[in-house]
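Protocol step 6 of 9: fold each sequence in the batch and record its C-alpha cells directly after the sequence line. For illustration, a two-sequence batch is reproduced in full.

Sequence one:
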Amino acid sequence: MDPDDDDDDAEAPGLPPGVSRYITPAGLARMEAELRALMRDERPKIVEIVSWAAGNGDRSENGDYLYGKKRLREIDRRARFLGKRIDKAQPVDPAAQTRRDRVFFGATVSYVDEADAVRTVTIVGVDEAEIGQGQVSLASPIARALMGRQVGDEVRLATPRGSTLLEVTAIAYP
C-alpha cells in the first residue's frame, strides 16, 4: 500500500500492482475543477456558517456548528484525496495515439460476446471511470483483456458467471 494514501479515503481503492495513474486530459480537468470548486466556493461558505454558528453560544447543541464542522472535514478529506491523485496523475492524450489499429489507453472499443451482444467501452483512468457512461477503468478485467488487441481478435474473459469469448469489432480514438 502506498504510504501517501490516507486510510480514511474509502473512495480511493488501491491500484493493482503495475497499473499506472494514467488519466485523460478531460478527466484531469474535471478533477482539478472539482478541487477548485471545493476550495474556492464551497469551503469558504461552510467556514462562514461555522464562524456564525460558533458565535451563537453553546456549540455542543448547535446543529449548524456541528454539521458545518463535519462538512469541513468531508471537504478537506476530498481535497486531500484529489490533490494526491492530481499530483500522481500521468495525463495521456488518446488523440495523440499513433498506433490506432490496436487497443491502448483512451481507445473506444466495440466488441461482440458469445450471445451476439454488441458492447462499446472507452478505456480511461481509474479516477475517471464511469461504467454507466461506458467508461471502464484501465485496471478493469475487460480493459486488461482488450489491451493490445486489434479488430478481429478474439479474447477469453473470465467473469463471475464463467468464461466468455469476445471478438473486437471496432477501435476508435478521439
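Sequence two, same batch, same settings:
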Amino acid sequence: MKTKKVFPSELAYLIGIIVLAFGAAFMEKADFGMSMVVAPAYLLHLKISEYLPFYSFGMSEYVLQFFVLILLCIVMGKFKKGYLFSFVTAVFYGFILDFAMKLISFLPLPGIPGRVFFYLIGITFCAVGISLIFHTYIPPEAYDLFVKEVAAKTGKDINKVKTVYDICSCAVGVILSFIFYGFGHFVGVKGGTIICALINGYLISLCSRFFESIFVFEDKLPWRKFFSE
C-alpha cells in the first residue's frame, strides 16, 4: 500500500487562496461569465467603479463578503473569532485577485479558442483552490466559510451544500445584471456562469478525492482551537 504524503493544512490555505484568485482572473479574461460565487461582487464592481474608479474587483469582493459574514452570524445564531479572520482572508484574496487580473491582462487572447482555454483554466483553478481551502482549519473567504459552517450545522454533504449555494449566488448575479443593465443584457453572468454553477460542486469533489488519495492533510501550527472558538 502506497504511503500518503503529508500536506500541511496551513499551506493548503495559502495555495488555495492564490489559485482561487487566479482562477477568477482567468474567467474574467475569458469573458464567458464569471464564477457564480464572485458574479455579484463583479457586477457591483463594474457598476460602482463607473462612479468610483478606485473601486476594484478585489475591493468589491471583501466589501460584499463583510455582509455575507453578517448573514452567517444570523444563520448560525452566534459569532466566532474565526469569522473575523475570514474577513482578513477576504482582504488577502482581494489583493491577490487585483494583482492576478493585472498580470493576466498582458496575456494574448487569440479569439474564441483562447477564451475557451482561459475559461477552462479558470474553472479548474477555482475548483482546485476551493478544494484545498476545504482541507484547512484556517477560516476561508466568507463564501466558503458559509458553506462549511452550514454543512457542519445541518450534517449535509459539503459539496451538495456548495452546489446549492452556487446556484443561489448565480441567481443573485442574474438579478443584479437585470437591475443594472436591463432585461436581455447579461453582464458578468453568461453561459459560462451557468455551466460553472452546475458542475463546480462535482469538480471540487473530484479534486478533493484526488488530493485525499495522495495526501494526508495535517496541522503544523497549533491554531485550530483558536479559530474554532
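Proceed to step 7 once all outputs are recorded. Observation for sequence two: The longest helix spans residues 81-104.
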